[in-house]
C-alpha cells in the first residue's frame, strides 16, 4: 500500500485498530509491523505542536516516537510557554536527549536569576543540540549572561544571540569548533571581546546588526568566512569595510544595511574596491540621496530635516553602473530603499544599464520587489512572464 499523505496514514492506523479489535488481539502491538517507527515519525512530523500532545498520551509506542518529533525543534516566542518548556526540560530526564534546536525569545521580558539557573541546567542536559537562538532584553544584556553556557557539552553548528559581546561569550565560542553560522545581534555597547586565534575554525557565515567594527574584525580575522551581513553607520564605513579583508577566504556574499548619509554612488565603489570577486550583493539603503531643509522652529531653535529627493533616485541608480563594472563575478544584486517609488519602466532601464556594465549579473531586485532576469538577451521579470 502506498500512503501519499498524512491523512491517509492515519486512515491506515484507524483501519488497523478496527481490525485488531475485531480479531481480539492487542491493539498497539499490531501498529509496529504495518508502520515502522521511522514511518510514524515522518507522519508525526506533519502535525502541529498542539496536535502532538494527545498523540503522546495515547500509547507508549506513540509517546516515544511523538516525543522525539515534539522536542527535536523548540521554537517559543511566548515567554509563558518558554518558561514552562524550560521547567519541563530541566526536570524531565527523557526529553532533553531529543532536542536538536532551541529558539527562545525573552527580548520583551526581564528574566529572573532563577530562570537563568533553570536555563543553565537545561543547556547542560541537551547534549545533542546543534542550533541555538537566544534573545534577551536590553536590560538583561547589560549583565554577563553567557555564564549559562558553563559546563555544557553540546556542539553547535549555528548560534544566534542578542547577549552582549564580552569575554564570557568569547570563551564560550572558543568551545564550539563546529559552528559554521554565527549571528550577533546585540546592542551597541562596548565590552572586551577577544576570540582565541583557534576559535571558530569552520565559521562560514557571519551576521551582525551592531555598529561595531572591532567586533566584525575580531570575528572575521583569520577565519574562512564567505558570507557576511552587516550594518554601516556614518563614521564607521571605511573601518567596517576594511574588516572584511581579514577573512581567510574571499567573501562571496555580502548583505549591507546602510545608515550612511552619503548617496549609494559613493558606497558601491568602496565595496567594489575591496571585494571585486563578490557573487551576491544585497544592499538596503535607509539614508540615500537627500535634500537638506533648514527652517526656524519654536523658541528660535534651528532644525535641519533630511528629505528624500525622489526625483533624483532613478538618475542615482543609473550612475551606479560605472561602479558595478568593477565587480568581476557578481551574479545576484539587490538594491532596496524603503519608501522610494520607482516605475516598472524605470526598473527595466536600470536593470538593462547595470547588466551592460556588469555582464555577469543574472538576477536583479530593485525597490518594487520585482525579480529581474535575462531572457532571450532581454531583461524581464515575473510580471512579464505572467503577461
UniProtKB/TrEMBL annotation:
Database matches in SUPFAM superfamilies: RNI-like
Annotated InterPro entries: LRR_dom_sf
Designated name of the protein: F-box domain-containing protein
Organism: Rhizopogon vesiculosus
Amino acid at each position: 500500500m502506498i500512503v501519499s499523505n498524512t491523512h491517509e496514514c492515519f486512515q491506515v492506523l484507524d483501519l488497523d485498530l478496527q481490525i485488531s479489535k475485531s480479531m481480539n488481539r492487542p491493539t498497539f502491538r499490531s501498529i509496529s509491523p504495518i508502520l515502522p517507527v521511522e514511518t510514524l515519525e515522518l507522519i508525526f512530523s506533519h502535525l502541529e505542536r498542539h496536535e502532538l500532545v494527545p498523540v503522546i498520551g495515547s500509547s507508549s509506542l506513540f509517546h516515544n516516537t511523538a516525543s522525539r518529533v515534539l522536542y527535536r525543534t523548540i521554537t517559543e516566542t511566548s515567554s509563558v510557554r518558554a518558561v514552562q518548556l524550560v521547567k519541563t526540560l530541566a526536570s524531565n530526564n527523557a526529553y532533553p536527549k531529543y532536542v536538536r534546536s532551541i529558539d527562545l525569545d525573552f527580548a520583551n521580558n526581564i528574566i529572573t536569576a532563577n530562570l537563568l539557573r533553570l536555563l543553565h541546567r537545561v543547556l547542560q542536559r541537551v547534549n545533542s543540540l546543534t542550533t541555538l537562538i537566544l534573545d534577551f532584553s536590553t536590560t538583561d544584556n547589560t549583565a554577563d549572561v553567557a555564564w549559562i553556557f558553563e559546563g555544557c557539552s553540546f556542539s553547535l553548528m549555528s548560534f544566534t544571540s542578542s547577549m552582549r559581546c564580552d569575554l564570557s561569550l568569547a570563551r564560550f565560542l572558543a568551545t564550539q569548533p563546529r559552528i559554521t553560522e554565527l549571528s550577533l545581534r546585540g546592542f551597541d555597547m562596548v565590552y572586551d571581546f577577544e576570540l582565541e586565534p583557534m576559535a571558530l575554525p569552520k565559521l562560514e557565515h557571519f551576521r551582525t546588526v551592531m555598529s561595531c567594527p572591532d567586533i566584525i574584525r575580531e570575528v572575521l580575522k583569520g577565519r574562512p568566512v564567505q558570507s557576511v551581513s552587516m550594518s554601516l553607520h556614518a563614521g564607521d564605513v571605511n573601518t567596517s569595510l576594511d574588516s572584511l579583508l581579514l577573512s581567510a577566504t574571499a567573501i562571496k556574499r555580502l548583505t549591507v544595511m546602510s545608515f550612511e548619509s552619503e548617496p549609494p554612488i559613493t558606497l558601491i565603489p568602496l565595496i567594489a574596491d575591496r571585494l571585486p570577486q563578490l557573487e551576491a550583493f544585497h544592499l538596503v539603503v535607509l539614508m540615500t540621496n537627500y535634500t537638506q531643509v533648514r527652517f526656524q522652529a519654536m523658541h528660535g531653535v534651528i532644525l535641519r530635516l533630511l528629505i528624500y529627493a525622489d526625483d533624483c533616485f532613478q538618475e542615482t541608480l543609473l550612475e551606479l553602473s560605472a561602479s558595478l563594472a568593477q565587480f568581476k563575478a557578481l551574479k545576484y544584486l539587490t538594491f532596496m530603499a524603503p519608501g522610494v517609488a520607482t516605475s516598472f519602466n524605470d526598473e527595466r532601464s536600470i536593470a538593462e544599464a547595470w547588466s551592460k556594465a556588469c555582464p555577469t549579473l543574472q538576477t536583479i531586485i530593485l525597490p518594487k520587489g520585482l525579480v529581474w532576469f535575462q531572457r532571450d538577451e532581454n531583461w524581464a521579470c515575473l510580471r512579464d512572464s505572467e503577461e
